Recover the amino acids of this structure.
């Protein structure tokens, strides 16, 4: 069976050394609790939540991008009407968070976070700006590759996923212990691809990022040859 | 499948809801607070984590199709103040597809900087002695020390359970 997720203890990423559980996880026989999940529907999302580029009566600085894709289960079924939450740094690589101390400018017109629901085909779309890279103190001259944080629910507790989307051809990916913690064949699934058909003329560049969740059943399905 | 990545130190930007901690509406009859710390290998509280909960209601129903009577069954709480806190009701015991009865429990996920994937466990209620002694998961754990890491103790306004990410009292986490 190929390993998809990163090992919790990945020592190059320093914070894992004191936070990763070290005991072998107990194999749980899934019960009704794990095979169901919350209904987080339209009441939690407004249409404008999918646009991160407008706040405080102004437009965010940076390269405008459209990020779109489909959320699917392992067997290819779309995940419908499911909440997606995203958050990211601004064009200068600064988060709108009181604990982000990196002295890059805060953009008052960039919301920094978005939400949407997938449609009947599992599709979603966000309008945002391309985030900047930023330094972190993990090791000497450490910089995170540009990324968007994604949070997904699927339709069952077992499907819950928080991950990060990266951009193609980012030279920092090869140097990033968080990205590199994912086993080699699965890593590239975190990299979006530039899609000229998504790009809107005179407006924004398009990136496609499809997300595949495990099935909502008791047995995870993992094809050793599946590297898509 | 798409691999997991850490939620990082600024997860509150995307994942904070004003009503996040309310798995039930405030004022719900029989509501209790589930509270506890998330602790690292040094025993220090982790203050940038997010704990999420999911459970059935007091009659064994899940709010997976509709929220009924203000019961959402899902809660999320950050640990910026040193503890998570989720307002909920104690769930009913559940019968699984094999016909076994599970003691009342709440599924938990923890997300944080330094966790490359969420970690998952269940919270059980220490005062459900009879139900716990027949629970298929609790009885399959190797010893009482392992079981104790899942048992929330009664407190002034509900129940308390610390989640220990690493160390000699490490919480039993699950592979799903």
């Amino acid at each position: 069976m190929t390993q998809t997720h990163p090992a919790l203890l990945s020592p190059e990423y320093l914070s894992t050394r004191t936070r990763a559980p070290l005991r072998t996880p107990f194999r749980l026989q899934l019960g009704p609790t794990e095979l169901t999940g919350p209904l987080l529907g339209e009441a939690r999302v407004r249409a404008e939540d999918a646009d991160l580029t407008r706040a405080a009566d102004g437009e965010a600085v940076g390269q405008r991008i459209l990020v779109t894709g489909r959320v699917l289960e392992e067997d290819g079924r779309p995940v419908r009407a499911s909440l997606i939450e995203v958050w990211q740094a601004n064009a200068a690589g600064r988060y709108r968070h009181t604990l982000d101390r990196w002295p890059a400018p805060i953009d008052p017109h960039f919301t920094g976070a978005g939400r949407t629901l997938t449609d009947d085909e599992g599709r979603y779309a966000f309008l945002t700006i391309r985030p900047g890279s930023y330094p972190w103190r993990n090791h000497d001259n450490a910089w995170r590759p540009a990324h968007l944080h994604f949070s997904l629910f699927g339709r069952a507790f077992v499907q819950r996923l928080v991950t990060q989307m990266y951009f193609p051809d980012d030279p920092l990916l090869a140097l990033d212990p968080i990205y590199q913690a994912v086993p080699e064949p699965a890593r590239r699934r975190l990299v979006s691809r530039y899609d000229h058909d998504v790009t809107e003329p005179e407006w924004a560049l398009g990136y496609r990022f499809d997300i595949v969740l495990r099935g909502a059943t008791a047995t995870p399905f993992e094809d050793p040859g599946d590297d898509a | 499948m798409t691999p997991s990545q850490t939620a990082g130190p600024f997860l509150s930007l995307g994942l904070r809801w004003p009503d996040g901690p309310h798995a039930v509406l405030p004022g719900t009859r029989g509501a209790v607070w589930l509270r506890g710390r998330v602790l690292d290998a040094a025993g220090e509280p982790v203050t940038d984590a997010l704990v999420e909960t999911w459970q059935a209601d007091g009659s064994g129903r899940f709010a997976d199709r509709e929220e009924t009577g203000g019961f959402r069954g899902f809660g999320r709480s950050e640990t910026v103040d040193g503890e998570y806190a989720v307002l909920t009701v104690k769930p009913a015991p559940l019968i699984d597809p094999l016909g076994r009865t599970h003691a009342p429990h709440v599924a938990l996920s923890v997300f944080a900087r330094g966790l490359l994937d969420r970690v998952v466990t269940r919270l059980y209620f220490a005062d459900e002695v009879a139900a716990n002694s027949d629970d298929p998961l609790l009885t399959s754990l190797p010893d009482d020390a392992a079981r104790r890491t899942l048992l929330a103790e009664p407190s002034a306004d509900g129940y308390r359970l610390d989640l220990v990410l690493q160390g000699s009292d490490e919480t039993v986490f699950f592979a799903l």
About this structure: The first strand of chain B starts at residue 32 and ends at 36. Residues 6 and 115 of chain B are 5 Å apart (CA to CA). Chain B touches chain A through 66 residues (CB under 8 Å). Chain B has a mean pLDDT of 96.
